Amino acid sequence: MADRVRVAIVGSGPAGLSAAARAAALGMSHVLLEKTDHLSDTIYKYQKGKHVMATPSSLVLRSDFDFDAGKREAILGKWNEQAAEAGVTVRYKAEVVKIEGEKGAFALTLKDKSVVEAEAVIFAIGTQGNPNTMRCPGGDLPHVQYQLDDPGEYVDEHIVVVGTGDAGIENALGLAADPAQRNIVSILNRGTDFARAKAANVKLLQEAAAAGRIAIRLETSPAEVREGELLLDTRDGQETIPCDRIIARMGSAAPRAFVESCGIEFTSPDREAFPVLSPVFETTKPGIHVIGALAGYPLIKHCMNQGYDVVEFLNGNTALKPADEPILAEKFAPLPGSRPVDEWLALFGSRIEIFRELSALQLRELMLDSEVRPFAPGEAIFERLEVGSSLFCIAQGAVKVEVNPADPSVTVGIGEGSIFGEVGLISGRRRGATVRAAEPVIVVELSRNAALKLIATAPAAGRAVTRISIERQLLQIFGSGLTREDVAELVEGAEVKTVRAGEVVLAEGDSPDAPGGQDVYIIRRGSMIVQKALGGKQVFLSYVPAGSYVGEMALIDHAPRSATVKAAIRSEVIRLPGEAFARLLARKPELLRKARADMDKRREVNAFIEGRKDSFSGAVDMYSETAQFLIDNGIGEATDALLIDETLCVGCDNCEKACADSHDGLSRLNREAGRTYAHLHVPTSCRHCEHPHCMADCPPNAIRRGPDGEVFIDETCIGCGNCQRNCPYGVIRMDAVPPKKPSLLSWVFFGAGPGPGEPSKKWRKKNAGGVEQPKKAIKCDMCSGIEGGPACVRACPTGAAIRVSPEAFLSVAKLAEDR
């Protein structure tokens, strides 16, 4: 005869345990079904000695079980004791394989063929048993593992952790904790942010990297797993590193087939989607409830609160509000209309496009990390050139974007349900325009971390942000009076692709009739170089920065690709289907004229090269090799770089002295360092990269981009050194600002002070009063705020020092040829 209970709880993780404890406390007949031989397999599988966090600290714990931050072993021990004391009914090795029936009369079949009958079912099974696996060649080799039980087991190994969520970071920290183990630990992050991890974990990881215990590899992903080594795709191309073991912690997904077999629907077809839930955690199958990580709410405190709440709901306590209700009520209090929390959440979820496939629980969690504000008509939400990288969502009303700085009356409207601020989110640049409320408006502002986490964990939200950003980039690049409706077909067919450094996007000679032979590409991030085969050599034609497009010549002329386009650095491109682009050109003659004008400029470059291929082959070689040298030395991702013409340089060091005199006695320039080709020298000075590596791991967000594109470090720098380690060009130094020195006139007439330039260490020590000043990061800021522009260029008596932007690269290469 089958066991019969009021509620069957499947899974004994934090959510399931809390639900069972509440049922026991209420005297509700229940059974907790656990497929292993121990409680809380989720916590049990944490690495030994792991410190478990109890976040968010502002959230009240509502559970019959205790939970405070502490060691894994202590938490498990406490829960085992409390389960016994509370009289929780547990069945171990009870794996549920099938659920049949309806609300009030469910039959749960276990793997051992026994049956449990229950009026209601609570799913608390989590997702850890279904990890995302490595999909690169060699990903199935035996030294790839998806679990780390005891970091102390591994000694003298090269270990690579793939994934920078909390699990990946904690595994890396555990493997590198004991220097006596002599492990060499690297962790791979395919981006530059740590959107999935807690701030405390990110801080610990950065500290470990600063101490040299862990190597953080940003913008890096596995390309191929081999015996004893790992091939990586990095921002600068492919690289092979030693590797004895891979710990892959790339997230997990719900055991969807089983859950759907129970009659439960998901929010979307995406693998990482979550079940559709009501405010009381009920699924689309009445009588079956889902809580915990399977509901998209993975933090332990949240899970335990849900376990408590769902049993209270089943017991008839319909007045119970979620534990985060007071926090959200306070957050929504300034909004007009005095709506309750549930109504505001329903409004946000239904109106804001990127929220539409979030469950009620996911939306609540997102709101805890967001700000919601009303704005009056005409009120500025943010100003042009303002610092900020958050994302804004319009819940009610509309806004207007002032697209012409010289004439604020020229605006473009953005309506209810859409987003804005995505350019700052993606690029980290200052705001490109002023945005004002066009009418009474309510906006939800997502912090950069909250927005990136949403994009990473909710595929539908990520697609919506990508689609909107593509649409706006198309309108910005092609202009010509285009509307959203004009580019709708292009946006629908567009595809964002990541290309590694050196990877070919378009190949010279490809037929326009081949698949993709007429596709057009927008460089969304990074940069491209264009080459042409002449005389058996690949000759450099041009540099193409982000915000440009390539490939239209084959489409318009219906001719083979005339040149090869490949990534100068790791880049992102938007592929636009050629057929759709051709239809747009046919409808918009003005756009066709603009495209033909761009083609004519490119043909001029081709003619310049081809006209010299016979009589001046040496000059073409010099031009091509010089241009390639500039790309290889970081100019490919620069927005402004310093070059020195060594045929003019007399070695006076006026550039360094002027730099020091303009910056508190500390030079941002090392003239003699760096590399040289022919007569062009690239000294050690900041390139002000399009996507600065130094910004990637700055804890206080002290590195910013100024109104003229300069990348600068403000006074909030804490001297952690992350920027210095992340800069691939060695242009950032850590140093203390020296004591203020007397004026130049005092030095000339009275011999006071150290003279022009950077003071010597001896003078600095003598005049520091014996007090050691804290070090801070120091780098070129293009003399921002100093009249006349960069001091290094102004101080050069021979004109040898020049600042170069991407648009001037060809001129520099031509200058090399002319000389």
TrEMBL record:
Residue stretches spanning the membrane: none
Keywords from the named record: 4Fe-4S, Electron transport, Iron, Iron-sulfur, Metal-binding, Transport
Gene3D superfamilies with a match to the protein in the record: 3.30.70.20, FAD/NAD(P)-binding domain (3.50.50.60), Jelly Rolls (2.60.120.10)
SMART domains, sorted: cNMP
Molecular function per GO: 4 iron, 4 sulfur cluster binding; metal ion binding
Pfam families in the cross-refs: cNMP_binding, Fer4_11, Pyr_redox_3
Protein name: Cyclic nucleotide-binding domain-containing protein
Boundaries of every Cyclic nucleotide-binding domain copy: 354-455, 478-602
InterPro entries, sorted: 4Fe4S_Fe-S-bd, 4Fe4S_Fe_S_CS, cNMP-bd_CS, cNMP-bd_dom, cNMP-bd_dom_sf, FAD/NAD-bd_sf, RmlC-like_jellyroll, RnfB_subfamily
Domain 4Fe-4S ferredoxin-type: 640-672, 677-708, 709-737, 774-807
Organism: Novosphingobium flavum
